[in-house]
Amino acid sequence: MTDLRSLSLEDLTAQLSSRGYPAFRAKQIRQWLDRGVTEFDQMTNLPKDLRVTLAELFTVPGVKILRKLTSTIDGTVKYLFQLDDGETVESVLMQYKHGWSQCLSTQVGCKMGCTFCATGMGGFVRNLSAAEIYAQIEAAQQDTGVRVSSVVLMGMGEPLDNYEQVVRFLRMLGEEGGVHIGMRHISLSTCGVVPGIYRLMEEQIPLTLSISLHAPNDAIRSLSMPVNKRWPMEELLKACRDYIEATGRRISFEYAMIDGLNDSDACAEELAERLRGMLCHVNLIPVNTVEGKKQQRSSKERIRSFVAVLERKGINVTVRRTLGSDINASCGQLRRQQDSH
Ligand code: SAH
Ligand code: SF4
After folding, report:
1. Is the distance from CB of 107 to CB of 126 less than 8 angstroms?
2. I need a surface site. Which of 84, 98, 114, 243 has the fewest CB within 10 A?
3. Cβ burial, residue 170 (10 Å; 0-12/13-18/19+)
4. How far is the CA of 43 from the centre of ligand 2 (A)?
5. pLDDT tens-digit readout, 19-28
């Protein structure tokens, strides 16, 4: 059966018209979906025979809230969503000055195996469909009553390893009746799947690309990110330069500060050298501790010193604010707890 939400309005209109239904029916169906109604019987302005036909042809994949944690410090909400087949993914809703931002998952698990990451530990289960990625926004909006105004694809999974569904999801955001989040309010984070970066460049989608770099050289990067052996830093940074040239858009480099691994002043010097002249921004993230892993976050002094070196070398740098620290808001951890219960 076809997943109804993944069809564009034109596709749905075409499918309905081939069965003799007028175009406005497709719009009505879309409106119900956008209001969070997923049972065809509750779509009361549709004729009965159409409701029966829809049930025969389509499914509407949704997400159910399995667990929800709310931070008492800053109001960050973390969800564990259950998909129709029982699999689970996490998503986090955060409040910033400019509005609410939601971090979405794109896969159940991940193939990439980064050693510091809770998601990577459990291996890969499956890709999410575009509709399942989208449904995370609807579920959070319905639950909290807030409007999500920006989205980051930084939850569980590697978005460029689920390329088609992720791009389909991005297109769904702008469609008539959709949640209408402009591409300038979308960030996509990748561990460095180089061919995916080139494909994305061709799409001409003006989103913000984030690269999880986490190291200044191959020796250190390969220790924690197996993907670096497939696409080493030289290739990755070339793809980034090409991306900037083709799109005119600034790239954001994520750098998790791990005590004793990648946080020395020498690392900062080397990083600055490699990024010299690039239209970019470095975002330092004090690494989150993960159960069963030895990593510790760098001290505040170490981070300050690292920042100072980068700034002296003219690199644009910020330190990410920690949100939801009382609810372990970084993705991958809630699902693991659930699994071990
Ligand atoms: N797979 C994509 C997007 C999901 S991970 C990627 O790797 O970019 C989202 C971000 O969280 C990435 O920058 C990732 O490197 C980072 N991350 C993973 N585990 C972390 C941890 N324990 N502490 C801090 N950041 C972490
Ligand atoms: Fe996958 Fe990203 Fe985690 Fe690496 S950091 S294992 S790419 S989710």
Report:
1. yes
2. 98
3. buried
4. 39
5. 999 999 999 9
N-to-C CA span, the chain = 33
Do the bridges between strand 88-96 and strand 99-103 make them parallel or antiparallel, or are there none, so unpaired?
Answer: antiparallel
How high is the pLDDT of residue 86?
A: 94
pTM of the model: 0.88
For 119, 146, 156, the CA distances from 125, given in Å and listed in that order, are: 11, 31, 11
Beta strands in 177-303 (DSSP E): 186-190, 208-212, 251-257, 280-286
**pLDDT band at 6, cuts 50/70/90?**
confident
Q: Is the pLDDT of residue 16 over 80?
A: yes
Q: Pick the ligand that lies closest to the CA of residue 253.
A: 1
- Ligand 1 pocket: which of 104, 127, 154, 333 to mutate (most atoms <8 Å of CB)? 154
Q: Is the beta carbon of 158 within 6 A of some atom in ligand 2?
A: yes
Place of tokens 């399942």: 132
| Distance between CA atoms of residues 341 and 238, nearest Å | 44
Query: Of 157, 186, 160, nearest to 83 (Cα)?
Result: 157
